[in-house]
């Protein structure tokens, strides 16, 4: 394996991580900003108010996008193992 091939594998790995983690991070950040705006408007600063909705959203996103995430990860691993052969 040359240095170029190793760099290509690492680049692909970073892209897969961004694809898999992107929906979870974006939705949890959006919910966090929305709840922060509500907390600033109402002046209620309780930590559990932001924690519970984020956990619920993350669970829902994992249930909805879980099969796609698993398929993406499997495809990447098949590519890596095929390069080993």
TrEMBL record:
Keywords: Bacterial flagellum, Cell membrane, Cell projection, Cilium, Flagellum, Membrane, Transmembrane, Transmembrane helix. Pfam families: Bac_export_3. The chain crosses the membrane at residues 20-39, 51-70. It is a multi-pass membrane protein. It is found in: Cell membrane; Bacterial flagellum basal body. It comes from the Bacteria. GO terms for biological process: bacterial-type flagellum assembly; protein secretion. GO terms for cellular component: bacterial-type flagellum basal body; plasma membrane. NCBIfam families: fliQ. Belongs to the FliQ/MopD/SpaQ family. Role in flagellar biosynthesis. This is Flagellar biosynthetic protein FliQ. It comes from Anaerotignum neopropionicum. The gene is fliQ.
